[in-house]
Amino acid sequence: MASRLARMLLTALAPNLRYRVRGSAPALYLSFDDGPHSRTAAILDTLARHKVRASFFILGNRIAGREQLLRRMVAEGHTVGAHSYSHRSPRRLNRQQLQEEHLRCTRAITAVLPNWRPTLYRPPYGHLSWNLLRCSREVPFDIVLWSRDARDYRAKSTHAIAHNLGTLEAGDILLFHDQFQLTRDYLDEMIPRYRAEGFRFEALESAAPSRPAIAPELTADCLPDRTGTIAGRRH
What we know:
This protein is α/β, with parallel strands linked by helices and 235 residues long. It has helices spanning 2-13, 40-50, 67-75, 95-112, 130-138, 158-165, 181-196, 204-207, and strands at 17-18, 27-35, 55-58, 79-82, 120-121, 128-129, 142-144, 148-149, 173-177, 200-201, 229-230. The chain contains eight helices and eleven strands. Strands 2, 3, 4, 8, 9 and 10 form a six-stranded parallel sheet that branches.
């Protein structure tokens, strides 16, 4: 009952919140946080080798000196979204500070990609707050979370990543980070396997051009507490 009430509440409050993608196509959605890094090019090489498109959520303060990586992402068909400027939790920011974090990030992206408008935003740590929900309506932007977390930042093997993700289903948004060798090794294993089962790999924006295509699937721990904070998973 609590989970059902949470879904109903957040669907009403935040129709722009994405947790997974609903649709008839058997598709999976790879997403990568916290880049660009010096090792991002290796992830792009892996995706190019498998002819797979994905989504990258960018930190604005990591763009300088790595501008060509963003240009390559777009040139190869990937989606570029915002992940804030400096990876500060929305729980610790007021509405003005949230807007500034988002604006600085999107300006840093569009300075490199003048024809690209970042409409997708993934909050640091997956943290949500009332201020963030208000900010997302005012700017506006869509908030993208995830349905499967690889936890690759602490995994010791590709088997551990597979265990963390569990059995994948159509519409799953998978959370990775783009600086780990194990992540690349896992992708080399899983992409052929899931393709053989009939899955496609898509970038988020192309798969979900409008909000009604999104199915928010949220649990009771996503309800706001008395401080106005909505719990999120660590990433």
